[in-house]
Amino acid sequence: MNTIHDGFYLNNQPKQQNQQSQGILGKDDFLKILITQLQNQDPANPMDDREFIAQMAQFSSLEQMTNMNTAIQKFVSLQSSQNLVQHSELIGKQIQWKREVEIDKYRSRTEYVNNVVTAVKLEKDGQLRILLDDGRWISHEQLVQVSQVVQPTNETQKKPEEDSTNGEPVENPNENAEV
């Protein structure tokens, strides 16, 4: 007697997609349901034209929404990449950034710090991070001011310890400005 080994049959079966395990139907699933419905309808009492047109309109709408979702996902990805390129122009620039310093558990104060940007990266979660010359990573949302690094001339050259404010709090020049 000829038998077919179960192992051969199982390897040929398509694997279930994640959509089915999540209970989400896609446009292909909707089309399969519509085709099955048309194939199994009662010939003596076929589907009403209005019902068929309504289902086709729903299918068309579903396909358009799926295409729009794909386009939006591509746009968001492109926007994240573009932000990275734009912020890469900060490399080598002097920035002023703000940080919150906790005084006690009920109060905090804002400090403004000057550093030079050495790198920029885009995290997996889409957050843009900036590496400073002191090895600290900050969020781009902490930026207050961007300027060129000022190179002292020979006649105004100061000692490095007098010239450096890297990583040290400074007063925000914009804070006391009159309008």
From TrEMBL:
GO terms for biological process: bacterial-type flagellum organization. Pfam families: FlgD. Keywords: Bacterial flagellum biogenesis, Cell projection, Cilium, Flagellum. InterPro entries: FlgD (IPR005648). Residues 11-22, 166-179 have a biased composition (Low complexity). Residues 1-22, 148-179 are annotated as: Disordered. Belongs to the FlgD family. This is Flagellar basal-body rod modification protein FlgD. It comes from Halalkalibacter nanhaiisediminis.
